[in-house]
Amino acid sequence: MKKICAANWKLNLSPEEARRYFVEWSELKPSRLVCDLVFFTPAYDLPAAAEFAPAEGFHFGPQNIYFEMSGAFTGEISAQAVHALGARWALIGHSERRTLFGETDAMIAKKVKAAMAADLVPILCVGETLAERESGQTKKVVSRQLRAGLEMIVAEFALARHFAIAYEPVWAIGTGKVATPEQAGEIHAEIRVELGHLVGQKRAHEIPILYGGSVKPENARELAAQPDIDGFLVGGASLKPKDFFAIANALR
Ligand code: 13P
After folding, report:
1. Is the pTM of this model over 0.85?
2. Pocket of ligand 1, candidates 96, 98, 177, 214: which has the most ligand atoms within 8 Å of its Cβ, to mutate?
3. CA 55 to chain centre
4. How far away, in angstroms, is 235 Cα from ligand 1 center?
5. Exposed site from 18, 19, 178, 197, fewest CB < 10 Å?
6. Sequence-ordered alpha helix ranges (H) in 72-137
7. Strand, helix or coil at 165?
8. Does residue 130 sit in helix, strand or coil?
9. Which residue range forms the structural domain that includes residue 229?
């Protein structure tokens, strides 16, 4: 399986800054990288990403979509419209969407389905909070989020389509507290087992499971060595082209 290094810029970088970023990025000679790259930019930066997208292995997409393609839904983002811009991936169910914007498992399931209907590859984000980890709920929470997010597509798309999972422990996001390679590896292995139940063993091994939460150039190599870590979803460190390049370079 080809590994994936995904950048989640969150609410950072204006269109002008995004253009400067991609110029700096291309000067690093990313064709040397062996993983696929996906940039999840704010919606207004997608055209800047599109200008650079013809490069091999370079993809981009929105950090959120709505589950309807058009209509009276002020402020929302259409999966079909971003696809028309050249986006091929979509981030769905990020923990900041769940906690700050009230997204429920049911809404997230509809978004995963909408992404697939618009030919975007969804990355479904799952992960436990600190309280859930400390009360021994991690596996239960992650399993619930996975099942809720995937059951609809299992039923409707017979899983012929590509998708990925990102495991992001909420306590490790933006805190500098990275999960140890063993902690991350354990939950990734668990996700693989859960996927096996949902889609069958063979298919489960073709679904990339990305780790996210304080990934930095300094810890990327050790995390990447875990057998079930198939890539990264990087927040803060993706805002500097050199750091993001170093992280992507750890995925071999
Ligand atoms: P940080 O890398 O800043 O911890 O963010 C992780 C994240 O939320 C990526 O989606």
Report:
1. yes
2. 214
3. 20
4. 3
5. 197
6. 79-84, 95-100, 105-117, 130-134
7. strand
8. helix
9. 4-249
Burial of 43 (0-12, 13-18, 19+ CB in 10 A): middle
Report the pLDDT value the prediction gives residue 155, as an integer from 0 to 100.
81
Integer Cα distance of 134 and 66 in angstroms: 33
Residue 39 β-bridge partners: 7, 60
Q: Give me the chain's average pLDDT, please.
A: 95
Active-site residue, 17 included: no
Largest CA distance in the chain: 47
> In the prediction, which pLDDT does 158 show?
66
- pLDDT-above-70 percentage for the chain: 99
CB-ligand 1 contact for 91 (6 Å cutoff):
no
Helix, strand, or coil (residue 42)? coil
Distance (Å, whole) CA 229 – CA 210? 6
Q: How far is the CA of 172 from the centre of ligand 1 (A)?
A: 8
Q: Say how many domains are in the chain.
A: 1
CATH number of the domain that residue 75 is part of: 3.20.20.70
* Residue 83 is a catalytic residue: no
- For residue 46, the surrounding DSSP H or E stretch is helix 46-52
Confirm or reject: Cβ of 233 under 6 Å from ligand 1. Answer: yes
Q: Which atom of ligand 1 is nearest to the CA of 172?
A: 4
